[in-house]
Write a structure and sequence with these properties.
2 domains, oxidoreductase activity, acting on CH-OH group of donors, 527 residues, alpha+beta, binds flavin-adenine dinucleotide, 23 strands, FAD/NAD(P)-binding domain, FAD/NAD-bd_sf, 6-stranded mixed sheet, 14 helices, Glucose Oxidase, domain 3, Salicyl alcohol oxidase paralog
Length: 527
């Protein structure tokens, strides 16, 4: 209590952990890392368990505000918004897919007035962080002595091989999607090591826990950043630990790395945010900035499935009850090393993209070696918001069949969400408005449909047809009246079942001072 450090960091996800690690390399600096969550346990190590972790205390348990334009077939019409509440942040509960941004994403940020963020600028940091164990890789884009392990999945279903071959047959080149070219197909690259999860806590915090100049304080929830009204500089943090309020002070910097959902809340509670919104809750305004006014995420469509005529998908239940499955995992092998069944990824530029660059994909296809019926509807369908009724009508019949799913993911959404405070009480969750599929030209839906069409094309290749890959034609409840497989049908289905990817971004947008949407500058300092 009342202690003073050089740096106070709020939040121990990948950003906060990496910062804590790097800043504490300097023995002259003292660092406090505040984290609301507790230590992760061994279950979080098991890649196959990742879909279940959002039902644990390691999740903040957020949900979006219900909205009429999407999620009609989601449980209670509500989209979940899981977010890691644990040392290591969301990297401890995430799906472990290792994908860097497209080169053009970074180059375009830099061109928007953010020096230091071009692909050439950031690549050295990706290299520095990584220890790659990949069978196929573009060597100049990878490194093998960083703290974060990136690996192929040791387990692979026969279906994964078939799907990758079929994609190639459909014209998708095999690529290292974190290398020279992103567009194409690849087995998934994962943040795992020897078949177990590699996360921020293991990579960045565990190795430094004996450093004398850093204090890592768990179960400590920041409620306010203390800001000097005259100088506008942050000088400390208020937080709650064990039901009591404390204050700590920083001589150099207060860093909010509480994630893209909680950082905007913390800033607003501290008086940094849209003036009228803060006044509504009686929060004294320190700086009138558009915090939380923007939010994008990658919408996922989990509503298309394919039936096959042979036992090439993952047989989840049979493998889980196999007494050798856990011993195999302990040796870094077998089903439990699979990241919830995600096996391959395609990046595609659909035929409706209007981007000037051929190397800029607008859809990602997430290939699962199983369907949501593989666990008899217990976890996978819930993790992707499919409600009980929809599951029973559309997917349940697949429990006794060979089936698999590929989820199209929208890469560059036009629809704009936002985050509002619910109240001035820091313990109240903010209000999340995803606003999916609200762009005036309906381009987001159209792009997802274009992704579905490409997926159908892959399933029509001779390689997939050898297994008689056939789309499941039972319509989603509410879409029975439109012709199955018409664009109208897929729009109805997309608006019916959708999941966020939990890649929420832009809630404290980076940009130069003259960018009216920007909250932080290119050095991530609040304007
Ligand atoms: C279920 C799920 C699946 C995902 N799958 C993938 C994937 O496969 N691949 C991928 O690249 N990305 C994935 N992501 C996204 C990825 O995990 C995040 O982009 C990344 O973790 C963000 O890092 P961060 O440090 O910004 O925030 P976070 O990882 O969210 O960390 C923020 C930390 O701050 C703490 N915190 C928040 N508020 C406070 C407070 N007031 N006081 C103290 N501490 C606080 C939180 O408890 C948390 O530990 C997924 C995310 C989720 C939730």
């Amino acid at each position: 209590d009342n202690a003073t450090y050089d740096f106070v960091i709020v939040g121990s996800g990948p950003s906060g952990s990496a910062l804590a690690n790097r800043l504490s390399e300097n023995p002259k600096w003292s660092i406090l890392l505040l984290e609301a969550g507790e230590e992760p346990n061994w279950v979080t190590d098991i890649p196959m368990a990742c879909g279940a972790l959002e039902y644990s205390d390691y999740n903040w348990g957020y949900t979006c505000e219900p909205q009429s334009g999407f999620c009609r077939n989601c449980e209670d019409g509500i989209m979940q918004y899981p977010h890691g509440n644990v040392l290591g942040g969301s990297s401890v509960i995430n799906y472990m897919v290792y994908t860097r941004g497209n080169k053009l994403d970074f180059d375009r940020w830099a061109a928007m007035g953010n020096p230091g963020w071009s692909h050439d600028d950031v690549l050295p940091y990706f290299l520095k962080s990584e220890s790659a164990h990949l069978a196929v890789k573009d060597d100049e884009y990878h490194n093998n002595n960083g703290p974060l392990s990136v690996s192929d999945v040791p387990y692979r279903s026969k279906l994964a091989d078939v799907y990758v071959k079929a994609s190639q047959e459909a014209g998708h080149p095999y690529v290292d999607y974190n290398g020279k070219n992103q567009i194409g197909v690849s087995y998934v690259q994962t943040t795992t090591k020897n078949g177990g999860r590699s996360d921020a806590e293991k990579s960045y915090l565990r190795p430094i826990k004996n450093r004398k100049n850093i204090k890592i304080q768990k179960a400590s929830r920041a409620t306010k950043i203390l800001i000097n009204s005259n100088s506008k500089s942050a000088y400390g943090v208020e937080y709650i630990h064990g039901g009591k309020k404390y204050r700590v002070f920083a001589t150099k910097e207060v860093i909010s790395s509480a994630g893209s959902l909680n950082s905007p809340q913390l800033l607003m509670l501290s008086g940094i945010g849209p003036k009228t919104h803060l006044k509504q809750f009686g929060i004294p305004v320190k700086s009138d900035l558009p915090v939380g006014r923007k939010m994008y995420d990658h919408a996922i469509f989990p509503g298309i499935a394919f039936q096959l005529n042979d036992s090439i998908p993952i047989n989840l239940i049979e493998e889980i009850i196999d007494p050798f499955t856990y011993p195999k995992y302990l040796k870094g092998k077998g089903l439990l090393t699979s990241i919830s069944g995600v096996e391959a990824i395609n990046y595609i530029k659909t035929n409706i993209s209007t981007d000037s660059e051929d190397s800029y994909p607008d859809i990602e296809l997430f290939m699962f070696g199983l369907s949501q019926a593989a666990d008899n509807g217990m976890i996978i369908r819930r993790a992707f918001n499919v409600d009980h009724n929809t599951y029973n009508k559309v997917f349940k019949s697949l429990e006794s069949k060979y089936a698999y799913q590929v989820f199209p993911i929208l890469l560059h959404p036009k629809s704009l969400g936002r985050i509002d405070l619910r109240s001035a009480n820091p313990l109240d969750p903010p209000k999340f408005y995803a606003n999916f599929f609200t762009d005036p030209e309906n381009k987001d839906v159209a792009t997802l449909i274009a992704g579905i069409r490409e997926l159908q094309r892959i399933n029509k290749t001779p390689t997939m047809q050898k297994y008689n890959a056939t789309v499941v034609r039972t319509p989603l409840p509410g879409c029975e009246k439109v012709e199955f497989d018409s664009d109208e049908y897929w729009e109805c289905a997309i608006r019916g079942v959708v999941s966020a990817s939990y890649h929420q971004t832009s809630t404290c947008k980076m940009g130069p001072k003259n960018d009216t949407e920007a909250v932080v500058d290119h050095k991530l300092r609040v304007h």
